[in-house]
Amino acid sequence: MNTNFIELEKLVIIPTYNEKENIEAIIAAVFDLQQHYHILIIDDGSPDGTAQIVKSLFTIYPNQLFLEERKGKLGLGTAYIHGFKWAIQKGYTYVFEMDADFSHSPADLEKLYLGCKNGAGVAVGSRYVKGGAVQNWPANRIALSKGASLYTRIITWMPIIDPTAGFVCYKKEVLEAINFDSINFVGYAFQIEMKFAAWKLGFKITEVPITFKDRTKGASKMNKGIIKEGVVGVLKLRWQSLFKSYRKKIANIESSNGVNFTKQEILLEGK
Ligand SMILES: Nc1nc2c(ncn2[C@@H]2O[C@H](COP(=O)(O)OP(=O)(O)OP(=O)(O)O)[C@@H](O)[C@H]2O)c(=O)[nH]1
Ligand SMILES: [Mg+2]
Question: Which residues surround ligand 2, an ion (CB under 5 A)?
Answer without folding.
Answer: 99, 101, 103, 215
